[in-house]
């Protein structure tokens, strides 16, 4: 039951589950500033960043403002309803520096070594193949890039173990909310 609500290890949610989640997030976002955590990531104007597992796009407006006109935000998800919702939000809020991208079969359409900073929030628990996922994030990251990833609905121990087992990221810092990772040398 918990697995079907939180999507543990299932990757793609059903359409009704996604729609329900999007509705809950819409209500949540009127009371809680989910995107406030981005202030802690040191995002700078001009950077190219990826909101990986963006869902309906609760963080994209804030991310767009932080990277500014010269920067770029790629909002990536494996669910077509997420990509659709983000595209609508981009139009509605005129977020010219944001692009919604669909990932499929563990691959997203971003160039190798192209992204300064990736954040993956409230989604790691859903990822069915963490090693493939973390290697894909490593592929798109610049060699001096940063990954901020939170536990999602799993214990920190489990999340940490997956990151270290991937062999491609090392954990540079942990806070109660997230882990800051660097590409492993
Ligand atoms: C609970 S939502 C969180 C959305 C957003 N990050 C937030 O914090 O508001 C999780 C999202 O991650 C996406 N997702 C799950 N597995 C994924 C994967 N392997 N790659 C990219 N996105 C994924 C789901 O489709 C869903 O839209």
The string of secondary-structure elements, in order, is HHEHEHEEHEHEE
Distance between the amino and carboxyl termini: 40 Å
Q: What portion of the residues fall into strands of 2 or more residues?
A: 15-25%
CATH class: Alpha Beta
**How much helix, percentage-wise, in residues?**
25-40%
- Secondary structure class reads alpha/beta
The biggest beta sheet reads: 7 strands, mixed
- Radius of gyration based on Cα positions: 15 Å
**Overall tally of structural domains:** 1
Write the CATH fold name: Rossmann fold
Distinct ligands: S-adenosylmethionine
Helix count from the secondary structure assignment: 6
Please, what is the average pLDDT? 95
CATH architecture: 3-Layer(aba) Sandwich
- Overall form: globular
Question: How many strands appear in the DSSP assignment?
Answer: 7
Spatial strand arrangement across the major sheet:
3-2-1-4-5-7-6
Question: Can you put this structure into words, describing what you see?
Answer:
- The chain has helices at 2-6, 15-31, 60-67, 80-93, 130-140, 156-166; strands at residues 48-52, 72-77, 98-102, 115-120, 141-149, 169-174, 179-183.
- The chain has a 7-stranded mixed beta sheet, with helices on both faces.
- Helices cover 36% and strands 23% of the residues.
- Helix 5 (130-140) crosses helix 6 (156-166).
- The chain is built from 6 helices and 7 strands; from the N terminus they run ααβαβαββαβαββ.
- 39% of the residues are buried.
- It has a single domain (2-183), classed as Vaccinia Virus protein VP39 (Rossmann fold, 3-Layer(aba) Sandwich).
- It is globular, with a radius of gyration of 15 Å.
- It binds S-adenosylmethionine.
- S-adenosylmethionine binds at residues 11, 13, 21, 25, 34, 52-55, 58, 76-79, 82, 103, 121-123, 126-127, 133.
């Amino acid at each position: 039951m918990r697995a079907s609500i939180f999507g543990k290890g299932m990757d793609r949610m059903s359409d009704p589950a996604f729609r329900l989640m999007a509705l809950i997030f819409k209500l949540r976002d009127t009371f809680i500033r989910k995107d406030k955590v981005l202030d802690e990531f040191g995002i700078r104007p001009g950077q190219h960043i990826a909101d990986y597992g963006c869902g309906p796009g609760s963080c994209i407006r804030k991310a767009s403002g932080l990277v500014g006109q010269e920067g770029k935000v790629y909002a990536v998800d494996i669910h077509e309803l997420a990509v659709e919702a983000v595209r609508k939000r981009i139009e509605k809020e005129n977020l010219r520096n944001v692009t919604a991208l669909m990932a499929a079969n563990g691959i997203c359409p971003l160039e190798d070594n192209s992204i300064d900073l990736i954040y993956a929030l409230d989604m790691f628990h859903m990822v069915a193949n963490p090693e493939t996922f973390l290697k894909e994030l490593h592929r798109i990251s610049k060699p001096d890039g940063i990954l901020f990833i939170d536990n999602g609905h799993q214990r920190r121990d489990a999340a940490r173990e997956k990151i270290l087992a991937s062999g491609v990221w090392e954990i540079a810092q942990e806070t109660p909310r997230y882990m800051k990772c660097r590409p492993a040398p």
